[in-house]
Design brief:
Length: 634
Amino acid sequence: MSEKWTTADAVDLYGIDRWSSGYFGVSDAGEVLIHPQGKGSHTANLMDVVRGMQERGLDLPVLVRLSDILDERIKRLHESFSVAAGEYGYQGSYRGVYPIKVNQQQQVVEEICSFGAKYHHGLEAGSKGELIAAISFLKDPQAYLVCNGYKDEEFVDLGLYALKLGIQCVFVIEMPSEVPVIVERAKALGIRPILGVRVKLTSQAGGHWTKSGGERSVFGLTTMEIIKVVDELRDAGMLDCLKLLHYHLGSQIPNVRDIREALKEACQIYIGLVEEGAPMGVLDLGGGLAVDYDGSHTDFSGSRNYTTSEYFSAVVEEIMSALDETGIAHPDLITESGRALVAYHSVLLFNVLDVGRIERFSAPPQLPAEPHDLLLNLRETLDAVETRNVQECYHDALYYRDESHQLFKRGLISLRERALAGQMFWQILTRVAERLKTLDYVPDEFENLDAALADVYYCNFSLFQSLPDSWAIDQLFPIMPIHRLDEKPTRAGVISDITCDSDGKIERFIDLRDVKQTLPLHDPGDDDYILGVFLIGAYQETLGDLHNLLGDTNVVSVRLDGDGHVHYAREIEGDSVADVLSYVEYQPKEMVVSVREMAEKAVKEKRITAKERRAIMRAYEDGLRGYTYYEREN
């Protein structure tokens, strides 16, 4: 970093140019900018969004949905295929489908169907509820509605009726037992279905979701089962309905080589189905198109070593390589890209409520007149820390720290003496950390020292509600302040939410070369210090829970006009206390009655006055109506 801090230093420190795909930047004033159409497009200021939201009466935390980015992601997906198809001479078309499970919020599905109509972008449903939702929103007769998951008679009937309504609804057979159900219901209703089969490939991909693929994956058919399905359909007079081959290698596939290898295998199965007499015509690659969360452009599980353009080039090249020598027509392509579509368009914003610091930079403490030998030893170690003996001093500090604990347990030092020992221990570690910066090689035993010295930033959100993958699978998301980026951050922190759970913290952060244990941050001061968590549009809203009865955050959807002015397209208030209580089977009205009776009894027993009763009831009922998160006083 240069001696004079600039916003360019902030861009480099937080890696915003590496992970944002051009959708975010930093202004000269040190605030995060939104570029909804990528670099060079009209911009808006994320802090202006917050200010406008607060003027409209919505508090932090808030989930900001940037609808323009969602639209641009659909456009980028389809245009990337078009470029690859033109370059290689691919004859099939592309019909993406959005898996509703990735983000089931009505506004997201509606937006995808609306903007995606010009590209014939469809939907994927894996349950009866998702199928019912999809039928109501998908109006384009050229878009596909792909049905995965278990299918009972009611599910099948709904899909067949969707065909009657003009929707290209495809039943993907995942279990052999589904065939007779589909055949029987199709004949009963007099509707010819569109069918596909999902194959279990032997190929597997790296990353978090490697078990989604391979021969031991949960869903899909073996090649033996596929042949059995072909024979059953032929016997039923429905082999002509089999038009699609589907496979799913896994979500967030970081290495493009795995994509190529799986496609080679899938193409041979596709060829085999054509040779069996099925008309085919559609190849569904499932999901897997990854998001580069850390900006490293590698095959790390939170990254990817390819771009969207490179993805489609690889897909088109592999299909043509396999099919052209057989004379089989190029199939229409479907990808069930969900993460790559919606991740970028949602940002979680929350304010810092407090900071827990180890007072390690203060002057050495004044020792008592007759100090215990332990305190003298710690003070001597503190004064002795130099680069040449840094390891020795570190070991001595750990030894004396442990000794202080044992002495205190046996009653041999006082509470105040133990506190003095603790203060000097952290001061020694701070000096050790400073000296380590001058070394060419730092021994492995110091690997966790920075994390041990980090400040704890207590923030107004719930990890379990808003970022469940951070807790459940150690997913890394880009996190950074959205303002004050023209100031050099002077602190190193970890993030804690407001749940009373030791797991409600973030202490792993993205880095270009490795995973960092701390995040560079500013001293919050007296004003709101606001952090943003980016790329959270996929799965986080769907998987969040009511840990500590902290509910959904406020949601604001914004669009930018041609001049970069922010339009608040939709505002959804977060859950009230009464809302979340009702979710877990409490009856808020009955609770009010119970407390009112308790208060009236207290009045009769002269423990409170009638006026105090009114104040108590007002506070209780206001609490029920209030936001589940921390609310600042007006």
